Amino acid sequence: MDFDALLLSRLQFAFTIAFHIIFPAFTIGLASYLAVLEGLWLYTRREVFKTLYLFWLKVFALSFGMGVVSGVVMSYEFGTNWSAFSVKAAPIMGPLLAFEVLAAFFLEASFLGVMLFGWKKVGPKLHFAATCLVAFGTLTSAFWIISANSWMQHPAGYMVLADGRLAASDWMAAIFSPSFPNRLAHMVLAAYLTTSLVVGGASAWILLKDPTQPESKMALRMAIGMFAIVAPLQLVVGDLSGKQVEQLQPAKLAAIEAFWETRPAQPFHAVAWPDRKIEANRWELSIPGLGSWITTGRTDAVVKGLKDFPKADRPPVFLVFWAFRVMVGLGVAMIGLGAWGVVLMFRGGPERSRLYLRATTLMGPAGFVAVISGWIVAEVGRQPWVIYGIMRTADGVSPVKVGAVSASLLAFMLVYAVVFSVGGLYILRLFAAGPALAGLQEPAPGLARAPGSALSAAPDEGELEADPREGDA
Amino acid sequence: MSLDLPLIWVTLIAVAVMLYVLLDGFDLGIGILFPFARSDEDRDTMMAAIAPVWDGNETWLVLGGGGLLAAFPAAYAVVMPAFYLPIMLMLMALILRGVAFEFRLHGRKRGKPFWTAAFAGGSFLAAIAQGLVLGGFIQGVTVRNGAFAGGPFDWLSPYSILTAAGVVAGYALLGAGWLVWKSEGELHGDGLRWARRALVAVAALLGAVSLATLIVHPQIAARWGLGHPGVDIARLAVHLPIPLLGLAGLALAGWGVWKGSHRLPFAGGAVVFLSGYLGLAVSFFPYVVPYALTFRQAANVDSALSLMLIGIVILLPAILGYTVWVYWLFRGKAPAGGGYH
User: Fold this and answer.
1) Would you place residue A399 in the very low, low, confident or very high pLDDT band (cuts 50, 70, 90)?
2) Quick check: A95 and B312 CB within 8 A?
3) What is the pLDDT, as a whole number, of residue B1?
4) Does A276 reach chain B within 8 Å, measured CB to CB?
5) Three-point CA angle B248, B251, B256, nearest 5°
6) Sign of dihedral through CA atoms A72, A73, A78, A83?
7) What is the pLDDT of residue B261?
8) What pLDDT, on the 0 to 100 scale, is given for residue A428?
9) Which residue of B has its CA nearest to A91?
10) What mean pLDDT do residues B228-241 have?
11) Which of A48, B68, B89, B222 has the fewest CB atoms within 10 Å distance of its CB?
């Protein structure tokens, strides 16, 4: 086994999936938001919803494109870098991933074309149906990929074949493995929160410049509604997930909480510096008994510590411990932002508090940070296993050479740096213009020019004279 | 009744890859032709001719990869590491090509030319990479104990460079044919001109690749009845319809270009691809990794194949149905400059 090729393959997978996960986390929520906006527009006929729809559709088109291209990479990396894992797990993982392609990707890709370019080609109801199908597709995609990931986290419904491969003995048990329902709920809520934070942040940014902007006022209120409902709900679902981790993956739980000794009445380490070398925390700030209560619901419960596991079976502690704290810290801040916003809504409107607008703008990217932190907790926390308890990550790697993987990793870093920073810039430019100025006016019926590019083209002062087609966008 | 699941699945995966090649082939072809367009406005129109459908087209590639993992994991686990570098090149090229659709609309003075170049370069490199994989695939892959056991550059040879050139020319023909179908006026004329040139290149390269394949790979020559000691007329006669189909495709495309037909150049190009694809299928069956793994050896367990068959029986008709509907919805000429009516 080529150790460096293994390390580089792990880095490459972590890098490519960390970038990829940003986009689904955002587009799952945004597709549902677009469906709600278009539905509200059809139902109320209020222009504010249509303007918001057309504005966020432009953001969606940019983000979805980046999600697609970074996602195609993932479906090949299982083979290019993790072929041994693929062979062993394919009898179960294969169908789950294939169902994601068949049930979700085609649906999303096909109806996205109708969403972006079919505004004048299909009626409003059919267009709304296309939006709903894309939203449904994003959720279906989440269903299958979280199912596959949950099975890797806690394999169920399988048997070991004579050649070492794992095959399904019970498909329902494999698809709905024990941690799947909680983890799916946690992921979908995370996506909804991420999107509402971006929508709230972008709207607050506009309102800081123009507190009367009607679409941004509406969007901010919708976002606050989501913070207020989803953020507390996420805390409950996350807590259920955490308690399940204590049952199913005790080593991960011990790393999350930096428990080293197995003991009753574990203290809760609010902050600590866990160190694998000395098998203890270099320092910690703790509350006695609370650790057991958080993980099991009882203060006197015995909770396993890392020393109960052979050294080779322990996940990296420092990263998991801190990623978890970043995620939960941001989650608590989101709950606070929701409560504060609701209070302001009853006191004349959130746009009147510049402090709240600044805080909401600042929290705009918090969902992404929380999602990536949560992903680190889930995926680093289950190391050294790629299929928990069955196959080590080190045994899953492909017979590839270190030179080839270094080359591809470097190229990915370069390409992603360009593509995703420019994509981010274009999205920020849209946010800066806001729904009023982003060039959304759809042409009146009968005009030769129609919204295909009106939905996507960026107006640019410099180009207005040079290119008359851009001018009426 | 018991179904021959591996046989059904090898057919399904082959059809998915064929659909990918045909559908994304014309998308990539449009990109390959991008540098030859007269103006940025023409490029906008060219992009508008594929913008609503490219994403669905590329999904067949995801099905090809994901389906290979799901149906023939042993083949997937050999092919992907064997072609590590060209596949990585293809993925990165497809990233640049894919984001360019949206980014080009948002770019300003520097951004737009950059993403125009990224679209053209990404399309070209993706075609090259696919051609290199094809060439390397035909050459065969070193397999030991069910795993890839060759070097990182095994796929690189004069032969694979020839196939890469063939794929680029073929995609350019499909792209030009699609453009002829979807455009009007001057651009339509340009499309016909590009189609003519691509057609000449395809005819030459297809002939060269076929010849090289027979010379370099005696196993394939024998399969076609052209091996030693002599020509096996009966064997050759059975296989002859495939190259004849290719010639018919070339003739159809040529006739269409000559007559200025709107649809025949694309249809002819598609027939050429079909014949080439059938030719490969006949040359390799039953191997999914040439000369190392047959589709039966590489097949996933029956419980996986049968579950997926249930899924595909339900979902594939729906996918094909709405795909056809989307193409029908965006039928007719692409709007000049990229607007949609």
Assistant:
1) confident
2) no
3) 53
4) no
5) 125
6) positive
7) 87
8) 94
9) B304
10) 81
11) B222
Kindly report the backbone phi and psi dihedral angles of residue A268, in degrees, each rounded to the nearest multiple of 5, phi listed first: -95, 120
Interface mutation target, options A8, A20, A87, A96, chain B, most CBs of B under 10 Å: A87
For B315, the domain range is: 5-217+294-338
Whether the Cβ atoms of residue A423 and residue A67 lie closer than 8 Å to each other: no
- Which residues are bridge partners to A269 per DSSP? A286
- Whether residues A408 and B84 touch (CB distance < 8 A) is answered with yes
Q: Which residue has the tokens 């520097």?
A: B110
Residue B102 belongs to a domain = yes
Tell whether B307 lies on the interface with A, counting CB pairs under 8 A. Answer: yes
Residues in chain B: 341
CA angle in degrees (0–180, nearest 5) for A124-A31-A48: 55
Residue A281: per-residue pLDDT:
85
Q: Which chain A positions have a beta carbon within 8 Å of B50's beta carbon?
A: none
Q: Is residue B250 part of a domain?
A: no
B22 found inside a domain = yes
| Per-residue model confidence (pLDDT) at position A297 | 82
- pLDDT at B31 > cutoff 70: yes
Tell me whether A451 touches chain B (CB under 8 Å): yes
- B109: chain A residues, CB-CB within 8 Å: 462-463
Determine, yes or no, domain membership for B139: yes
Q: Which residues of B touch A405 (CB under 8 A)?
A: 84
State how many domains chain B has.
Answer: 1
* Burial label, B53 (beta-carbon count in 10 A; 0-12, 13-18, 19+): buried
pLDDT grade, residue A321 (50/70/90)? very high
Of the candidates B53, B80, B87, the beta carbon closest to that of A113 is on B53
Are the beta carbons of A102 and B62 separated by less than 8 Å?
A: no
DSSP structural state of residue A176: T
For residue A141, what pLDDT is reported?
93
